[in-house]
Amino acid sequence: MSASTDRLIWIIGALREHCAWTHALTHRDLMTYLVEECYELLEAVEDRHPDAELRGELGDVLLQVVLHAAIARERGAFDFDDVADTLSAKMIRRNTHVFTPEGTLRGSFPSSTAEIIASWDAAKAAEKAGGEAPSAVPAPTAGLPRNLPALMLAQKALSRIDRAADARLPAGLEPAAAARELGERSAAVLASEEALGDHLLAVAAAARGAGLDAEAALRGAVARALAGTPGNPAS
Description:
single chain, 235 residues, mainly alpha, Helix Hairpins, 0% strand, ITP diphosphatase activity
């Protein structure tokens, strides 16, 4: 660890020991703070805030990691070094196109994104199966956090299914079919992210006017679509 990282860990440890409020924090208490800090970081990136603000927001997210590690250390589970070591090992395992199993650089590297994604997916599948080639292919959406925002969940689920060799997008959700569902407005709605955003906002406004929860509606639609996708538990 660098001197800066060591000092940060010491500061948080001192706060846990001598600040009653910080000492009382639990993993569950920090959940809301973590979500809030991540959204503030996203806003800083999206709105292109000055680098000094971006640095500060990154620090706020890092604070959450250090706090969680400090709480875990106190109960003898793991510490910040363990978190860093676990992440390093994971990056080496998952990025077999860059690293050898020993963590050294390979002699050559793939140049196409398709090769990199295929290598990542294969390494991840082998890891989930305990380090060996899986005998049964897991559902392409296995492991997606259930608490993702509905729109993000929908996009990630569709992307994973589309990339899977043995899965097909649910009927009506292929890009061309989905565009047809929009009817005559499809060209205008899909012309740009701005136009698409305006359309989604209008849908949310209409749902609100009808007394419907757009977030819950989309989450339910994703669940129904996944239930009809081969390889998923509900199919």
